[in-house]
Amino acid sequence: MVPLTAFLIVAALLFCIGLYGALARRNAVSILMSVELMLNAVNLNLVAFWRFNTPAQDVGSGLPIGMSGQVFAVFVFVVAAAEAAVGLALIIAMYRSRQTVIAESADTLKF
Amino acid sequence: MQTVDWVQWLAFGILTLLTIGSALAVVIDRNIFHSALWLLVSLFGVAGLFVMLSAPFLAAVQVLVYMGAIVILIIFAIMLTRRLMGLTEALNTQWWVGGITAIVTFLVIAFVLFQAGQGANPILVREPIAALNGRGVEELGKALVDPAQYALPFELASVLLTAALIGSIVIAREDQ
Amino acid sequence: MIEALVNLGWNPHIATFVALLLGVVACASFGLIWFTVIGLWLVRKVAARVQDRMGPNRVGPFGLFQVFADLGKMITKEDITPQGADKPIFNIAPLLAIAAVVLIWAVMPFAKTLIGADLSVGALYFISVASLGTLGVLLAGWSSNNKYALIGALRAVAALVSYEVPMVISILVPVLLAGTMSMNGIVEAQHIFYIFAVPLSAFVFFTSNLGETGRAPFDVIEAESELVAGYNIEYTGIKFGMFQAAEFVHSFTSCALMAVLFVGGWRGPGAELPGLAGALFGFIYFFSKSMVIYMLLLWIGNTVPRLRIDQMMAFNWKFLVPLQLVNLLAVAFVAKILQPNYEAVRATAESGSTLGNIYRVFGPEFIADLPRAIALLIVNVIILGGVGLMIRNSIRKERASVEANRAARPPYLGRRTPVEQPAVGD
């Protein structure tokens, strides 16, 4: 089996690429896509730790395996979907009133 | 087992290349529509990594939710907020700060991982502890509705989704 | 095959991988190749006979080689890419559409031992892969650089994504009753076919698949006579052929899925035999069931008129989704209360009493499933009755309001002289 460290390095790479995208891109939709990359990296981390570190309480006797890692990942899916929906609705509303989606131009408190 | 190792490393290498390569293309490509499609490929790579980690249910849900719904939503938003088909400047004025931050973050994480793998009693184990039989999906379902485990967050998540649904419709509706 | 390759000295993991890959490819291309050859002829003949005409009868006996004529025409047409189109996306979109359909065949159980890849999450896998087809439609409309294509694509994607919701909820019902998501597991658990136990869910699955694949009455996705063919206006030649083939094979795939999930797939007398005989029997049963359902789909498709897009969406969100949610709740409730007790029935069947003999004739699992199936059928009939009452009330209310409107307005008397009428334009 590929060691845990390899999966964690991949997740860290993905996270840092997403971080760069969120900090360096102009278009608000691009920033949202980079945030999705970061959330995926977090999911990968969670599932990797679940696979490697879950104590299997005596699998032979049929006792359940701890599922916390996968459950956490499922909740990250849910929150990512909700956040993507609301974020994109906000972007569309901003476009409608300001005619622009560049994040830097939303710089006044008075809309 | 030596023969097993290199096949698994090969699969892992292909999936990693797919994921990281298309993630780089997401943040570098100037055409935002193309970068949405690279996001699709990257999410597919992550789904493949989930399969390698013995979580087939999560891989299928990843394809269904992320690729089949969220990316379509992002493409809709791109289509509805385009003014010019031409290329505009893709990076903002402080992109170098973002680059330095990302590199420093990655180096810190890599250092911590390296440290955690050393020593007499390493925190990061090398071989997986749990030997799973094929009942993963059933156990996941039980964990989500068991009142002693995760039933409450499950209900809260559905309330969150309802709130997001109503909220996004209200925000994006045209003013009447 | 795995053993043969391992004996040749291959690495066992690579041997498994190659054998699985070949098996999956063989199964996945079955639907595409076979069905396009025979099924296309079938569609046109049936449509023609419904419309009281002959159908293709020139190319080969009874027009059987019409497919090859169509294929030849499609391949030799000029391949035009519109100016300003996004070339890589323009070329990928038809591939995505076809890939989404062909990938579903990898988990289809043809017989007890004939399945491409028996995933433990087969039902979820096929839903996820079907959502890739939606993406192909969107990319096609966007990359054509044509505003009609874009409008058609947006409308099509909205309809497709909406009809996925009742489809997913209606797939949950056989998964719930069988206790597993693997396709082979669902077929093996159907001692009583689920269409007799939960006909409402089968109806909702069938209807939402009609919406997903774009068959009439939900034709508006590709509306040949309306929106100038929708999202694939700018496609010519083999790429257009790929879109057509994808939509066409998708409709047969959805019938095959309905056969697997609700009518019992390869189950039937003799399908349990080991070896080639069992596989052959299972294949024949699976096939004939899918063809019967496909005939039903063609029949409906050629007789009902087309719904408008807003009628389609209203039908989905106001009728199908609430109906299927109530259905799922009722099925879950009944299935929890009346869980089949296989051990007790088998024990009675083993004993020599007359009841045991009756049990053994019918098969002990069938008898064990019977109380739950009957209860589910009763619950379904009750739900259907409730829905029928609600529809009848709403029709009565609408008719009453139309009558009231007609009574309030003065009637239009076209032939009277204008003196007796209020002036038009008041």
SSE blueprint:
The complex is a heterotrimer of chains A (111), B (176) and C (426).
Chain A: H1 4-24, H2 28-53, H3 68-98
Helix pairs in contact in A: 1-2, 2-3
Chain B: H1 2-28, H2 32-52, H3 56-80, H4 95-117, H5 136-145, H6 151-172
Helix pairs in contact in B: 1-2, 2-3
Chain C: H1 2-7, H2 12-50, H3 66-75, H4 87-104, H5 122-143, H6 147-178, H7 183-188, H8 194-197, H9 199-213, H10 237-262, H11 275-301, H12 309-337, H13 342-350, H14 354-362, H15 364-408
Helix pairs in contact in C: 2-10, 3-10, 4-5, 4-10, 5-6, 6-9, 6-12, 9-10, 9-12, 10-11, 12-15, 13-14, 13-15, 14-15
For the record, the count of structural domains of chain B works out to: 3
What is the total domain count of chain C? 3
Count helical runs of chain C: 15
Shape of chain C: globular
| Unreliable spans of chain C | none
Which H/E pattern describes the elements of chain C? HHHHHHHHHHHHHHH
Describe this entry's structure for a reader.
The complex is a heterotrimer of chains A (111), B (176) and C (426). Chain A is built from three helices and no strands. By secondary structure, chain A is mostly helical. Chain A has one domain: Helix Hairpins (Orthogonal Bundle), CATH 1.10.287. Chain A is elongated, with a radius of gyration of 19 Å. The termini of chain A are far apart. With 176 residues, chain B is mostly helical. Chain B has three domains: 1-83, NADH-ubiquinone/plastoquinone oxidoreductase chain 6, subunit NuoJ (Four Helix Bundle (Hemerythrin (Met), subunit A)); 94-125; 133-176, no CATH class. Helix content of chain B is 73%, strand content 0%. Chain B has six helices and no strands. Chain B has helices at residues 2-28, 32-52, 56-80, 95-117, 136-145, 151-172. In chain B, helix 1 (2-28) runs antiparallel to helix 2 (32-52) and helix 2 packs antiparallel against helix 3 (56-80). Chain B starts with a helix and ends with a helix. In chain C, helix 9 (199-213) packs antiparallel against helix 12 and helix 13 packs across helix 14. At the A-B interface, helix 1, helix 2 and helix 3 of A face helix 1, helix 2, helix 3, helix 4 and helix 5 of B.
